[in-house]
């Protein structure tokens, strides 16, 4: 099975779209009629360009308002079809998409529709063309693929088949199991799109919010599995209408698109128990460390910050200017090397989080899957084979180091000289709760696909977070057991904290690290006693909190004094939060306590936290 993409999915001229599709590795394209009409190339020129790029024109689309037209409009529709067949001959295309009629004058008489397709099939047979009939979700008379299949069966013509589009079926809630009634040899083509779960007009939803499989909330994997069950072995193609994609790099969308098809095909084949060409997703068992890059003076200040947060200097790298700081199950690494990856990242981003290390069961399988998905491994120039851990490229050019779960302790012992740590050193945090990254808006969906396709993370409902200077879109992803969580944030408002973070470096990156504790009050008091610079929360917040959740006066007074925030879900599960001030206006730390069952991230408090951080935008430096 090959991958294809509709030219309407990409930005640019037709020529630019074809080059992007070829560069991403697609075998073919669907040429969207408007792209051809607006091109300065003749159909024969397009055919030559396709040949030069190694692409096939797998489908020409759309052919609109065909079936059920009254009077003279019926003959006009047949004449239009003949002209399209001529054009397809020049393009080298042998399949055309006929979408269900939306014309207000069209007739819904079933026998009339069947007769129209029988005649069209006879005309198509003379040209060697296959006609695929597609149910538009907003079609006037036909809007369900089950009705299309009933018509195709009744037409019973070798040149008339069905085109299945995941958006049109899933947006209407049509059960994917209904595809089992369709003969695989009558499926002319398959188009795929995902979409966020929104309650709006189907046409508007389709034209503006479709996205790639793995970027939305539709069950595209099960849909494809049912198609494969029929025996269909033709192309899987993307047809995406999305405002963000129309302004994004065509190369980026094409690369993501190719990855999404490989991902959804693999997931569908696994559902059916079929053999696939890549290893299964390896769940992230947890974050093992976060690596910071900082030079001499900044490195010393960062170490002092860690100490104020209750961390202990636990070791020093045997050959490099790298130190390990530890508290409970949390490891921070400061890389002050003057050369190499961390140094280059520091030059672009300043003192920042340059890498994370994650534990998996089989890092070799992750690397193999990443290569199959087109995700690049990191290989330092001049030092092949000398890395302690393999790494993949991650958010904003950062790295994701891979560590087999059974080799963690040996790795630390081999790479670092351990320092004696006082056995009674206080431990306030027990592990990583989540990591939060800020990305450019045009990469927001890309990084969701990265985590979902590679590691099988689940996407939670996206949240709109109100920053005093604009809206921030936040998407949480996590492993099935919640042992690893990451949130992605993006904003097109220039003055939001997220946007200002992006302006200080090249590309996105991790902006904050959230640590879990079992006693938020004891932790907050210990941080105060150690002189940690924590964020001040306004008194109005806690006065409102008392009214909403019924805390007694003493508890509210203590929460206000220590700067603790609180949220609660509908089942009464609680979530406490505490924030540090930002280090050099670049990153900050969060301490959280979760009641078992609370699955969120304190979204109702985000606006309060952002407002507090904005008040300190000119002096958010931990001394």
Give a description of the structure:
The chain has 623 residues and is of the alpha/beta class. Helices cover 37% and strands 23% of the residues. The strands form three sheets. Strands 17, 18, 19, 20, 21, 22, 23, 24 and 25 form a nine-stranded mixed sheet that branches. The protein has an eight-stranded parallel barrel with strand order 1-2-3-4-5-6-7-8, surrounded by six helices. α11 runs parallel beside α16. The radius of gyration is 28 Å and the shape is elongated. Mean pLDDT is 92; it is low at 618-623.
Task: Tell me the strand percentage band.
Answer: 15-25%
Low-pLDDT windows of residues: 618-623
What is the overall silhouette?
Answer: elongated
Query: Helical segment tally?
Result: 21
Proportion of residues in helical segments? 25-40%
Query: Major beta sheet, specifics?
Result: 9 strands, mixed
**What integer is the average pLDDT?**
92
Number of strands: 25
Radius of gyration: 28 Å
Structural class: alpha/beta
- First-to-last CA distance: 58 Å
Descriptors:
single chain; 623 residues; alpha/beta; 21 helices; 25 strands
Give a short synopsis of this structure:
By secondary structure, the protein is an alpha/beta fold. Mean pLDDT is 92; it is low at 618-623.
Fold blueprint:
Elements (H helix, E strand, L loop, with lengths): L2 E4 L7 H10 L4 E5 H5 L5 H11 L2 E8 L8 H20 L3 E5 L10 H18 L2 E5 L10 H11 L4 E6 H5 L16 E6 L9 H8 L10 H10 L6 E3 L4 H5 L2 H22 L14 E8 L2 H13 L3 E6 L4 E6 L2 E6 L5 H9 L2 E9 L2 H10 L18 E3 L5 E6 L3 H8 E3 L12 E8 L5 H12 L2 E2 L3 E5 L2 E9 L6 E6 L6 H7 L5 E8 L3 H10 L9 H11 L3 H10 L2 E4 L5 E6 L8 E7 L8 H13 L8
Helix pairs in contact: 1-3, 1-11, 3-4, 4-5, 5-6, 9-11, 11-16, 19-20
């Amino acid at each position: 099975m090959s991958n294809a993409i509709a030219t309407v999915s990409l930005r640019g001229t037709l020529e630019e779209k074809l080059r992007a599709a070829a560069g991403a590795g697609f075998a073919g394209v669907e040429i969207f009629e408007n792209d051809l009409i607006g091109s300065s190339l003749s159909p024969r020129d397009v055919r030559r360009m396709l040949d030069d790029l190694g692409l096939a024109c797998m489908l020409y689309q759309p052919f609109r308002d065909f079936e059920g037209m009254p009077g003279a409009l019926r003959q006009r529709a047949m004449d239009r079809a003949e002209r399209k067949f001529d054009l397809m001959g020049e393009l080298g295309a042998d399949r055309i998409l006929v979408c269900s009629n939306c014309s207000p004058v069209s007739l819904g008489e079933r026998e009339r529709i069947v007769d129209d397709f029988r005649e069209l099939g006879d005309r198509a047979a003379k040209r060697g063309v296959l006609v695929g009939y597609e149910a538009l979700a907003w079609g006037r008379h036909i809007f369900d693929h089950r009705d299309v299949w009933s018509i195709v069966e009744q037409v019973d013509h070798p040149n008339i088949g069905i085109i299945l589009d995941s958006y049109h079926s899933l947006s209407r809630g049509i059960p994917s199991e209904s595809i089992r009634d369709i003969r695989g040899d009558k499926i002319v083509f398959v188009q795929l799109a995902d979409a966020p779960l929104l309650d709006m007009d189907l046409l508007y939803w389709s034209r503006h919010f479709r996205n790639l499989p793995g970027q939305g909330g539709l069950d595209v994997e099960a849909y494809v599995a049912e198609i494969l069950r029929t025996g269909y072995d033709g192309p899987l193609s993307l047809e995406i209408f999305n405002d963000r994609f129309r302004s994004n790099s065509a190369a980026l969308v094409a690369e993501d698109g190719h990855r999404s098809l490989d991902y959804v095909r693999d997931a569908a084949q696994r559902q059916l128990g079929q053999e696939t060409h890549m290893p299964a997703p390896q769940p992230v068992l947890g974050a093992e460390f976060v690596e910071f890059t900082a030079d001499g003076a900044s490195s010393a200040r960062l170490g002092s910050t860690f100490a104020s947060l209750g961390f202990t200097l636990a070791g020093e790298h045997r050959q490099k200017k790298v130190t390990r700081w530890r508290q409970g199950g949390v490891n921070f690494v400061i890389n002050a090397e003057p050369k190499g990856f961390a140094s280059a990242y520091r030059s672009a981003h300043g003192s920042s989080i340059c890498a994370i290390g994650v534990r998996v069961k089989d890092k070799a399988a992750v690397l193999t899957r990443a290569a199959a998905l087109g995700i690049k491994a990191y290989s330092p120039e001049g030092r092949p084979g000398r890395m302690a851990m393999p790494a993949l490229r991650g958010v904003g050019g950062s790295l994701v180091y891979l560590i087999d779960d059974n080799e963690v302790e040996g790795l630390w012992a081999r790479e670092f000289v351990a320092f004696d740590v006082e056995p009674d050193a206080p431990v306030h945090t027990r592990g990583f709760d989540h990591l939060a990254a800020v990305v450019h808006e045009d990469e927001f969906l890309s990084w969701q696909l990265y985590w979902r396709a590679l590691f099988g993370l689940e996407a939670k409902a996206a949240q709109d977070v109100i920053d005093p200077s604009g809206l921030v879109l936040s998407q949480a992803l996590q492993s099935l057991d919640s042992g690893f969580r990451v949130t992605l944030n993006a904003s097109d408002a220039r003055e939001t904290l997220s946007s200002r973070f992006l302006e200080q470096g090249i590309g996105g990156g991790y902006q904050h690290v959230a640590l879990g504790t079992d006693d938020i009050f004891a932790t907050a008091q210990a941080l105060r006693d150690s002189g940690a610079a924590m964020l001040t929360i306004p008194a109005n917040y806690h006065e409102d909190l008392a009214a909403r959740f019924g805390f007694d006066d003493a508890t509210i007074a203590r929460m206000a004094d220590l700067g603790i925030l609180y949220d609660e879900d509908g089942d009464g599960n609680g979530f406490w939060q505490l924030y540090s001030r930002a280090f050099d206006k670049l990153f900050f730390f969060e301490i959280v306590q979760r009641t078992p069952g609370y699955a969120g991230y304190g979204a109702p408090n985000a606006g309060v936290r952002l407002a507090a951080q904005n008040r300190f935008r000119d002096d958010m430096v931990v001394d």
